[in-house]
């Protein structure tokens, strides 16, 4: 049996960096059923509406869509069920303290296999306002234009 090495990304939440300003990230394991793991190995998952909550000292991943396994039988899983996240106690306590601050949320950034185990990267994030999003877009466009101009000058076009 060959053990998997490295990190194989299954799904990323690309919209999250646009809608949230990330303050800190955490890596957590996920408690999954067999058909969920098989579905993930096929590369199917969606983090679009996902979020995490802390309830009674446990962290739960909610609203993440892992489609039913195509070869599954009556033992198949519910696609949007709540899944328990596996974190150390001190990490959970730190998260509880930070989430109590106003406006902070736990957002899943990516879902991946690390050395054969399913993991999720959680971001402690604050929601962006519309003007923040516009500023980020303008800043990114300005940086892109600067890079283009530097490339042109290096080639001697201007």
From TrEMBL:
<dbReference type="Pfam" id="PF01668">
    <property type="entry name" value="SmpB"/>
</dbReference>
<dbReference type="InterPro" id="IPR020081">
    <property type="entry name" value="SsrA-bd_prot_CS"/>
</dbReference>
<keyword id="KW-0694">RNA-binding</keyword>
<comment type="similarity">
    <text>Belongs to the SmpB family.</text>
</comment>
<comment type="function">
    <text>Required for rescue of stalled ribosomes mediated by trans-translation. Binds to transfer-messenger RNA (tmRNA), required for stable association of tmRNA with ribosomes. tmRNA and SmpB together mimic tRNA shape, replacing the anticodon stem-loop with SmpB. tmRNA is encoded by the ssrA gene; the 2 termini fold to resemble tRNA(Ala) and it encodes a 'tag peptide', a short internal open reading frame. During trans-translation Ala-aminoacylated tmRNA acts like a tRNA, entering the A-site of stalled ribosomes, displacing the stalled mRNA.</text>
</comment>
<protein>
    <recommendedName>
        <fullName>SsrA-binding protein</fullName>
    </recommendedName>
</protein>
<feature type="region of interest" description="Disordered">
    <location>
        <begin position="131"/>
        <end position="158"/>
    </location>
</feature>
<feature type="compositionally biased region" description="Basic and acidic residues">
    <location>
        <begin position="133"/>
        <end position="152"/>
    </location>
</feature>
<dbReference type="InterPro" id="IPR023620">
    <property type="entry name" value="SmpB"/>
</dbReference>
<keyword id="KW-0963">Cytoplasm</keyword>
<dbReference type="InterPro" id="IPR000037">
    <property type="entry name" value="SsrA-bd_prot"/>
</dbReference>
């Amino acid at each position: 049996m060959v053990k998997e090495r490295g990190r194989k990304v299954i799904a990323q939440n690309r919209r999250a960096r646009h809608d949230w300003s990330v303050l800190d990230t955490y890596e957590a394991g996920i408690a999954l059923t067999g058909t969920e793991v098989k579905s993930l190995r096929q590369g199917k998952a969606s983090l679009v509406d996902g979020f995490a909550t802390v309830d009674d000292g446990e962290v739960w991943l909610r609203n993440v869509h892992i489609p039913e396994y195509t070869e599954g039988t009556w033992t198949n899983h519910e696609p949007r069920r709540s899944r328990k996240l596996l974190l150390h106690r001190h990490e959970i306590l730190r998260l509880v303290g930070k989430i109590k601050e106003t406006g902070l949320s736990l957002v899943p950034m990516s879902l991946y296999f690390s050395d054969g185990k399913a993991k999720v990267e959680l971001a402690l994030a604050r929601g962006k306002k519309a003007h923040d999003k516009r500023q980020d877009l303008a800043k990114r466009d300005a940086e892109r234009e600067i890079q283009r101009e530097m490339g042109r000058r290096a080639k001697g076009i201007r």
